[in-house]
Amino acid sequence: MSDPQGALVWCPFPDAGTAREAAGALLQAKLIACANILPQVESVFEWEGERSSAAECAVLFKTTAQRLASVVDRLGALHPYDTPAIIGWRCDAAHPETLRWMAGVIEND
Predict the structure, then answer these.
(1) Which domain range does residue 14 map to?
(2) What are the tens digits of pLDDT across the range 42-57?
(3) pTM above the 0.90 mark?
(4) Beta strand 50-64 pairing with 6-13
(5) How high is the pLDDT of residue 2?
(6) Is residue 1 domain-resident?
């Protein structure tokens, strides 16, 4: 087996409760090792031709590159928005102990 590679997923939620629910479901499914919930961010965006802003709760999910697509897919199913902003990427660098910990928590396909 090759060394694990880290990945992150960024996703805003309407509130901390829905963010915690999604984090709990992904942890239960062993798709992530951790979720950092940032209690309030202000999102400024364009939606349906109008500029708007909203207070949201943002989450940074820690996973492995192998599970990245599964996390993005599952978040899309769990998220309360019709069009959630879910963005994931592979990490170029991570501490080896962090990668070992994540690989030990997250189930492989």
Answers:
(1) 6-105
(2) 999 999 999 999 999 9
(3) yes
(4) antiparallel
(5) 59
(6) no
